[in-house]
């Protein structure tokens, strides 16, 4: 049996016609993928009407000079749980290094650091995550569902980017030419 493709530190791009409206044009930063399953944080879609200032207010944290960036839809699992994907120049309580490409923090100390101007140089906030059981993501990758790419870190943190289209283009694929149907050979 082939060993699974471990994609920690990669971006997963939803293929057209993935079949789940929650993942249409999704871009998911894979933060853990091993033989036990996978965990990723969505970075492609934002939660309308919710910004960092709202999150800081909910925790009683002074906003300081923190920009009011949009909060991303991290995924359909535990949608009230927050995560910050950020550059490796900051680390705090329970910060996890993701394949040397970015870090993931899910504790309140990073929100305080960002508000105080002492946080990472690059960051984005998300609520929820996407999770896959053992072998589940590998099965989805074998079907017409996801495309994996290392992705460009500048695009990951760019607040104006269309991460889905830009990441396909960076991989040499024109997303307008992708078919929503899978073929067989």
From TrEMBL:
CC terms in the record's Gene Ontology section: cytosol
Pfam families (UniProt xref): DUF179
Source species, domain of life: Bacteria
InterPro entries xrefs: AlgH-like
Family from the record: Belongs to the UPF0301 (AlgH) family.
Name of protein: UPF0301 protein D1610_11980
């Amino acid at each position: 049996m082939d060993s699974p493709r471990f994609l920690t530190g990669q971006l997963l791009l939803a293929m057209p016609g993935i079949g789940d409206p929650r993942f249409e044009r999704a871009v998911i930063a894979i933060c853990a993928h091993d033989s036990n399953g996978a965990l990723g944080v969505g970075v492609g879609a934002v939660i309308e009407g919710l910004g960092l200032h709202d999150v800081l207010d909910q925790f009683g944290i002074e906003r300081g000079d923190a920009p009011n960036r949009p909060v991303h839809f991290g995924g359909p699992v535990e949608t009230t749980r927050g995560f910050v994907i950020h550059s490796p120049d900051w680390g705090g309580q329970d910060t996890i290094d993701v394949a040397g490409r970015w870090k993931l923090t899910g504790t309140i100390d990073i929100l305080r650091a960002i508000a105080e101007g002492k946080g990472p140089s690059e960051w984005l906030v998300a609520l929820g995550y996407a999770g896959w059981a053992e072998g589940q993501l590998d099965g989805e990758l074998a079907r017409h569902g996801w495309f994996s790419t290392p992705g460009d870190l500048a695009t990951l943190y760019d607040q104006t980017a269309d991460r889905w289209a830009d990441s396909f283009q960076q991989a040499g694929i024109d997303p307008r030419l992708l078919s929503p149907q899978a073929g067989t050979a």
